[in-house]
Structures are given as structure tokens and as C-alpha cells.
Amino acid sequence: MQVLFDYVLFHFKRVYHLPEPLDISYGFQNSSRIQIRQSSTTFFSQKEAQPESVIWKDWQGTSLPLFFVSFTELDWLTQTASGTVVVNYDLIASGFYLLSGWQEFYSSNRDQFGRFPYASSVQARHKFITKPIVNYYFEVLRAAVELAYGQKITQKTWNGKPFATCLSHDIDYCQSAWKVAGKPALQKGRLGLFLKLAAQKALGKDAWFNFQQVEQELEQLNAKASFFFLPEQGNYQGHPNADYNVCSNLTQQQINRLQQAGHEIAVHGSHGSSINLEQLKSEKEKLAIPVTGNRFHYLRFDPDRTPEVVDELGFTYDSTLGFPEHFGFRNSYCHPFKLFNFNSGQSTDTWEVPLNLMDVTLNHPNYLQLMPLQVLPAITPMLNEIIRFNGVFTLLWHNENFSAYGLQGGLQMFQEITQFLQKQGTGFFTIHEVVKQTEA
């Protein structure tokens, strides 16, 4: 159980300004100022994906799930005559369960792309996908520290900003608008549109080769973004990778220009690379510049093999873990966290900067199918949770959805979301910048 405690406590210390050393223990076997009740669960010695039961207890108006307790009659915190503060519920076991991704590792449920499905998650089962439950657990622990030490404990900020926003763009397609949008136009008799798109392509200016348009939107926000380039062109088991050559002079010119403008360049690991170290290594090298981050194409992440792959290749961070089917908090946490390697039984050196919202999630036929006017009201409760906990909002908006030939209303939705965030006082950072602040 020490591994659980060390993993959860490590992340707790990244979020708050805490006394150092912090006198806290897991269990009642010593005289620490703060003692967290340890449950007698045998769950972690087994291989079940989900606990059999969950009970709920109110914390300052929010009902929180607890997975490894059988009672709720005690207060969250009590203080003994000697001043010791006791946390009466095992937040360590519940926090580790959610944050580490235990359910994904031990579940056999996978979709057609080998991904753990949202429908199989405890977040879907108990309807808390838009609540960062681990952050609420940490609020309880913060209250315990305040009581034990008699001082106010504050949350860390992001270079003085109350919460951080990471704008990111996966570059899957930048040479095929003429075909993807042009063919339906021709079928509908819109010859003029087809000819326009074809002419753009012939002149080497495909409508999706729109990096300058994306940059203009970022300049309006005074923001730098993270661009994930896909190094593999060939199809994989019938599924498409990039429609461009990342090694071509044309693409390399754009990569260099974006980097010189202060944007981050990162790897967009292709189909199959999340379980193939040599493949991902080759793709990383194709970018021909030093990169520290990765996100996998189609958000393909294998909880058995991926943590080891990205860790061994020395990636500072990955930013794949979000459910494609729903926005929210896949690991129930709104800050970066270290990936856990269940095969070695320990934390990796690679940070996960979780993905909270992907544009495709909003209207894909298999996903949410929201109308543009419904998007901001739907995601605002999630954004308010991030704001509440001084967290990080990571947004993926594909370059083609800045054009008129991608997601319907895509540009308008991007503008509405980012303007809302700007009004709330966010700081815009690249993902690499957020990781460096987390490490500090």
C-alpha cells in the first residue's frame, strides 16, 4: 500500500503550497500530525477492473464517490486531544484507483481501435466524467493540513494565472480538402466549389494546408500552441494515417516556421505506435528536431504497453488520455500526472497531460452529436471545475476544423470556447510549458 500512498501524495504536493516536510501518514501506526485511515480492502491484490460497490458522501455541497469504505457516518476529519488530524476515509486507495488508470489495465473491454471505451468506465457508470474527483479528494486533504498546521494552504497558479489552457492541434490531414470536401460538392452539382478546391490543390495551397489561418486565431488570443505532426503516411489495418509527408521540404518549412514563432512541435504517434517502441522511435526521429511530447493518432493508448513505450523513449509528456466519446476527465483529475506502469508497479518519468475535449467528440455520428449552439453550455460545467481547482484545460482542435470544409461551425466554436476561457483569466501555454511549471 506504500506504492499507492507515494503515488497519490506526489501529485497532492504538486498542486498546493504545503509545509515541508509534510508530516502525514497512511494508517494509524505512528504519531504523524495527519493520519489517513487505511481500508482493509484486498482489491489491489486481485485483478478486478472495478470495485463491487461505491458509496457517496457530501463534501461542501458535492457528493463524492468512495470505493473502499463501508460506512459514511463519520465526519471527513476529526482531531484528537493531542492535535492529530484523522482523515476518516481512505482517499488514498480511491485516488490511486482513479488516477493510475487501474480500471483500464485490468479491463478486457476494448473498441475497434483497441481503446478502453468510455461506456465501460466507472465515470460513465456513476456519471462523474465532468467531475475531477481526485481534485476533490485533495481538497479534503488540504483541509486536513490546514487544521493540523493552523495555516492557510493555497493552490499553485500558472505564472500568476488562475488556470492554464493548452491549445493543441493534431495535423492529420493538410493535403486532401480538395478530395474530402470536393467529391461531395461535385456529387451535389456544386461544380464551382469543386473547381475552387481543385485549383487550390493544384497551386499547392490545399484548403487544409491552413497553418497561417490557425496561427492568426492564436495571435488573436496571444497564445502559443502545441502542434502534433503525424510522421506516418501509410494505412494501418485499413485505417488512414497522414495525407502528407512530414519529411518533405514543404512540411519542414511549416514546422520550422511554427517553431520559430514560439509554438511547440510534438509527435503524433501513428496507428500501432502506442505498442511498438521502434516504430514510435522512428517517427520521433522523422521530425528532425528535438521534441518532448507525444499524442497518439485516434487517441490509441494501451494501458499495458504504452506507459513503458513513451517512458523508454524519453518523452517528457504524453497527451492522449481523454475519452473520444465524451469530454471530461478520463482519470478524474484536472492536472498533469505521472503515468503508472502496472507491469513494474511504479510510476514512470513521463507526465500525462490529460485531454479534456476533442473537436471530433462534439458531433461525430458515434459520439455526442451536439449542435454548435449547444457546445459551450454543455462544456461550461467542466470548465468551471478546472477553474475551481486552478487546473489545466487541454483542447484538441484539428487544423481542418478551422476551415469551411471541416466540422460544421468549427471555427466559431473554437472562438467561443477560447474567448470564454480568456474572459475567465486563463493563461495560454504550450503543453511543454505546463509540464515544466508542474515540475517546478
What features would you describe in this structure?
- Residues 88-174 form the DUF7033 domain.
- This is DUF7033 domain-containing protein.
- It is a single chain.
- The chain folds into three domains: 2-149, no CATH class; 164-174 and 209-439, Glycoside hydrolase/deacetylase (TIM Barrel, Alpha-Beta Barrel); 177-203, no CATH class.
- Helix content is 35%, strand content 15%.
- The protein is built from 16 helices and 16 strands.
- The strands form three sheets. Strands 7, 8, 9, 10, 11, 12, 13, 14, 15 and 16 form a ten-stranded mixed β-sheet that branches. Strands 1-2-6-5 form a four-stranded mixed β-sheet, with helices on one face. The protein has a two-stranded antiparallel sheet with strand order 3-4.
By CATH, the topology of the largest domain is TIM Barrel
Main beta-sheet annotation: 10 strands, mixed
CATH class of the largest domain: Alpha Beta
Per CATH, the architecture of the largest domain is Alpha-Beta Barrel
Question: What is the total number of structural domains?
Answer: 3
Number of helical stretches of at least 4 residues: 16
What form results from the Cα inertia axes? elongated
| Ends distance | 27 Å
> Proportion of β residues?
15-25%
Q: What is the mean pLDDT?
A: 95
Oligomer designation: single chain
Structural class: alpha/beta
Residues in helices, as a percent range: 25-40%
Low-confidence stretches: none
Tell me the CATH superfamily of the largest domain. Glycoside hydrolase/deacetylase
Number of strands: 16
**Rg result:** 23 Å
Domain DUF7033: 88-174
Pfam families: DUF7033 (PF23019)
Organism: Rufibacter tibetensis
InterPro entries: DUF7033, Glyco_hydro/deAcase_b/a-brl
